[in-house]
Write a structure and sequence with these properties.
The complex is a heterodimer. By secondary structure, chain A is mostly helical. In chain A, about 80% of the residues lie in helices and about 0% in strands. Chain A is built from seven helices and no strands. The two termini of chain A are about 40 Å apart. In chain B, strands 1-2 form a two-stranded antiparallel sheet. The two termini of chain B are about 35 Å apart. Classes of the chains: A mainly alpha, B mainly alpha. The interface between A and B is medium-sized, with 29 and 23 residues.
Chain lengths: ~200, ~120
């Protein structure tokens, strides 16, 4: 008789242990493999037994998910205290610097253009997008933990403003934008950190 | 409802009781996951085994609290028996103390409840 429910149990275990530190995940998988083997050795692989195994899997799903959340916690704490935190601080500082530059450039180009010719609307045409970009970057930083993906997108868009608005100076801004983009993506909260080596 | 620190859930107390029985019986003094599930069901007179998730999460909690210790069975033993190696659990002295406290507290609570119930039905 096919042990289809054993396969379901193994598949589910592989799924909910995915992305956990390898030692933690492997221990749980081995324990479930052993349990399934012992259960089959005791009760066989009759359809009734397989339904029983399926029941044990299904009833345990909330506990499995809760256990997974707890097993991830040490990694989250590591994210908050380890190397990734340094990356986050660097990113925050650079993004804040970029936003400040946008504000400074917006004010400069606005006032500068107006000083040369009061009827020139060019200052606002350049200044407003730069201010909006700065606002996007600051808002992106403020919602970094609550909405990581939205924060990443907003910051990347905001950081792209100088090279779009001052397109004739794009080569000057592209490297900065690439660095910000890389850092913002790498330091996004919740991004998977490298699993520690098994001991 | 959040439970108090050191308070055992019923399932945890039952697991510790099974582990204590194994320790007292002595052969073997350690139990693996499926054997625990089976003995828990036997104690309840039930055919249904505790779900995988509930059982192994409870075991992890008890181990984190140092009420149980565990180790992997030797590879050679498992290979000779032709099965996956087992994770073997043993109750610690702290686990035995926690179980004793749980039993005492439960008995006291049961007495209090019985007394309260008795007072409640007394004629005025």
């Amino acid at each position: 008789m096919s042990a289809w429910a054993d396969g379901v149990a193994r598949g589910w275990t592989d799924l909910y242990t995915g992305g956990l530190p390898s030692e933690t995940a492997e221990r749980r998988r081995e324990e479930i493999r052993s349990d399934l083997f012992e259960h089959a050795a005791y009760a066989g692989t009759t359809p009734a037994h397989q339904l029983h195994v399926l029941g044990r899997v299904l009833w345990g799903i909330p506990a499995d998910l809760s256990w997974r959340r707890a097993a991830r916690a040490p990694r989250e704490r590591r994210l908050a205290t380890g190397e990734i935190m340094t990356l986050r601080k660097t990113t925050t500082a650079l993004v804040a610097l970029g936003a400040l530059f946008n504000v400074w450039a917006a004010i400069g180009v606005w006032i500068g253009a107006g000083a040369e010719d009061e009827g020139d609307a060019g200052g606002a045409r350049y200044g407003i997008p730069m201010l909006l970009a700065a606002a996007l970057m600051i808002y992106g930083l403020s919602c970094r933990n609550e909405a990581p993906r939205r924060s990443t997108v907003l910051i990347i868009i905001g950081a792209a403003a100088p090279m779009v608005v001052f397109y004739w100076m794009a080569p000057l801004f592209v490297p900065f934008w690439l660095v910000i983009t890389g850092l913002v993506i790498a330091s996004e909260p919740g991004r998977r950190a490298p699993a520690p080596a098994a001991t | 409802m959040r439970r108090k620190p050191g308070q055992l859930l019923d399932l945890e107390a039952q697991i510790l009781a099974v582990a204590v029985d194994a320790l007292v019986d002595g052969d073997p003094p350690e139990v693996h996951g499926f054997a625990l599930a089976k003995r828990l069901a036997d104690r309840e007179g039930s055919q249904r085994l505790t779900s995988h998730g509930t059982l192994y999460k409870a075991l992890a909690r008890l181990e984190d609290a140092d009420l149980l210790s565990s180790r992997w069975e030797d590879h050679e033993v498992a290979e000779d028996a032709g099965r996956p190696r087992r994770r073997l659990y043993r109750v610690t002295s702290a686990g035995q103390a926690a179980l004793a406290l749980h039993v005492t507290t439960s008995a006291a609570n049961a007495t209090d409840q019985a007394a309260a119930f008795g007072r409640g039905i007394e004629p005025a």
